[in-house]
Amino acid sequence: MAESSNGASANGKGPSPEEPLRLGGMALRNGLLIHGPSSWSVAARNGQGGIDVTAGPKPNFGGNRFAGVPGVRGPLRLAEAFAVIPIARRALPSSRLPFEDLRVIGAAAATTVLSAVVRGRGETTSPAREAAAGALGLAPALDALGSSELAAYHAVEHKAIAGYEQDRDPAEVPKEHKRCGSNLIVPMIVFSALGQIVVDALVERPGRIARGISGLAGLSLSVEVFVHADKHPDSALGRGIHWAGHTIQRLFATREPTPEQLEVGVAALAAVLEAEQS
After folding, report:
1. Would the pTM of this model clear 0.85, i.e. be above it?
2. Are residues 80 and 63 in contact, defined by beta-carbon separation less than 8 angstroms?
3. Is residue 181 part of a domain?
4. Average pLDDT, stretch 68-72?
5. Contact predicate 225/241, CB 8 Å
6. Cβ neighbour number for residue 237 with a 10 Å cutoff
7. If you average pLDDT over every residue of the chain, what do you get?
8. Distance from CA of residue 150 to its chain's centroid?
9. Which residues pair with 53 in a beta bridge?
10. Would 263 be classed as within a structural domain?
11. Inter-residue contact 188 to 218 (CB < 8 Å)
């Protein structure tokens, strides 16, 4: 197996005939969070220049049990992934989350106000208005990705996981990945807009419950489109979804990382694989 430029194995594991685990992750401002079927790990560059690493069991909301149930698997697995974030942050105090920034918090608050203004009150809902409000919801994430460090660690996430899946040195694989959450952006905007329009058409005065159900349905449908694109990448839908996601990643969501940043990703990958085997 080739050795990486970081002095670690190309994918953080020894040769194995087994299928690679399905891993996901999230870029941090100074490191990487990775989660597998039952475990998570986080690695971060600390103030002294070293790498802090820890791992633990992943919350179980039934994501693996209902993995074959369309419409249910998506929200459950996303809930598990989001539940890991505060656990990992507490476990590794040196880590910094993407939204731990006053500018990003301000952007989120401003986006909430603008979205309410765009949707309006007591006015007829239109597809254009709902789509615009949904696009505005991306502002905090885009502002967070304005940090070159975060964009680089986003690329580290992709390269570390792809290197593991392909049994290659992470430095040699592309920084774009077909399972990146960017592939969810277009479906979520579309289904969010359609869902709000349907709710406004069917419910005279929709409240939080009705809109919440609509949002959950839109999320579920978006995940199913994501899954279809992953399983059928050569289909028209698959090509369209991956083109949009790849373009977002290529233009602003990822940047080529340094060897030192890749070293952090290799450490996180090794830790999650060890945790999954224990």
Report:
1. no
2. yes
3. no
4. 77
5. yes
6. 13
7. 80
8. 13
9. 43
10. yes
11. yes
C-alpha separations of 164 from 42, 140, 171, 264 in Å: 16, 30, 11, 14
Domain that holds residue 21: 1-98+258-278
For the CA atoms of 105, 108, 110, 112, the dihedral, rounded to the nearest 10 degrees, stands at -140
Residues linked to residue 221 through DSSP beta bridges, in sequence order: none
With cut-offs at 50, 70 and 90, classify the pLDDT of residue 108: very low
Domain count of the fold of the chain = 1
In a domain, 16, yes or no: yes
User: Does residue 106 form part of some domain?
Assistant: no
Taking the C-alpha atoms of 224, 225, 226 and 230 in order, what is their torsion angle to the nearest 10 degrees?
100
